[in-house]
């Protein structure tokens, strides 16, 4: 009787039904399920404990100084957050090396994947051109759609050597698939990609993270350990470690990257992997070595798209003028893709400052999510909407004109700013003139839409930790002073 009643409850109750063990579960499956449930509970308890600790410390101390990082996707928000982490909690930052190693491996494989896609496309277009009078298809991989591309494409023919190279690099695509597949079950990552009917490889996918803590735990599981305290924890002897395949394919990857025909194809496609997010092909010897452990610089260059909001908390003991006060800081990082921007608004009314990142090197690129929109134009519009937002009237705005290193290299390579921004006219095509001109454009928008505000602006390359540390210290000083002024203590 009791049994049948319980049975009925479980039949009626969708929650109870969902919690029931799968029918026909074997002993080993049960053991695995119970272990997974135990691990999930351990993580959940640890999160509750941390939240409690934070709640208590919030009640005790003065109000934290809050900074929100804003800007379009790939503008450098998460990289700026990494700089904050490196400055203020270097131990914790370095403890995540093992997790970043996996991301960097994925970045390497995806750069190679993009080049192989291009090779396939060139091969099929030459093939189609030789068998038909129709023009070759013009679709392109996710790496090349974010560039304004050439209308006429006359690819050099690839040889059987290229096809063999492509075949030998096949295992890398399995490594990519394995990394992606292992990430998915934990629900902290999403994939995005553009379908490309012309390519014979799987669709290029970009990994995104939902929360900073979650994915790092995921990667620690990936490397086969329960915790990921440092690169010492990497199981170097694991034959399934992706590093083994990367190491075995290293020479072929270098051959592909140095190949003159491949270089020509990339030139035609205006594909410049060295300016792309997560570029490590110039460091293949190092990153594919069997005992590779990422440096701080590597971690700053690693690319992982942000989906949700992640928060970094830290305390700083000294304020300006040697003030003995201790301040709690919170830095919020958000996803910059267009579809994710609505999630920024709930954070607007409670921030001391916004660091707005505008990557000024991207004047010749279009948005990945909307190839009809120029990236620089998007940054201008976004800046305009931020400076004129009434919710942000009292928020300090700090503008980082970012990716200056790439802008410098791009202009030096002969790409002309005036070809994309007509109003630039006949001014010299050098970094000094271009950066001052672009700064003025952002300043005018601020003056027109928020005339009472002062412009705090820095030219940055946030992958350079040394210069970024100085700039962030400057920003922190500014905000502490401002905070003290507002509390009428100065
Ligand atoms: N060379 C160079 N690369 C940069 C610079 N700033 C960021 N990057 C790289 O650009 C890529 C994108 O940077 P992220 O910090 O992930 O961009 P994001 O703004 O967080 O992007 P979303 O998470 O998509 O909103 C990363 O691979 C960074 O290493 C820079 O100043 N110079
Ligand atoms: Mg990000």
TrEMBL record:
**Any Pfam family matching the protein:** G-alpha
- Supply the SUPFAM superfamilies for this chain: P-loop containing nucleoside triphosphate hydrolases (SSF52540), Transducin (alpha subunit), insertion domain (SSF47895)
Q: Which terms in the Gene Ontology molecular function aspect does this entry carry? A: G protein-coupled receptor binding; G-protein beta/gamma-subunit complex binding; GTP binding; GTPase activity; metal ion binding
Provide ranges: composition bias, Basic and acidic residues.
Answer: 27-45
PROSITE patterns for this protein: G_ALPHA (PS51882)
One of the record's GO cellular component terms: cytoplasm
One Gene Ontology term from the biological process aspect of the record = adenylate cyclase-modulating G protein-coupled receptor signaling pathway
UniProt keyword annotations, A-Z: GTP-binding, Magnesium, Metal-binding, Nucleotide-binding, Transducer
Nucleotide-binding among the record's keywords? yes
Q: Which residues bind Mg(2+)?
A: 306
Matching PANTHER family, A to Z? GTP-BINDING PROTEIN ALPHA SUBUNIT, GUANINE NUCLEOTIDE-BINDING PROTEIN SUBUNIT ALPHA HOMOLOG
This chain belongs to which protein, by name? G-alpha-domain-containing protein
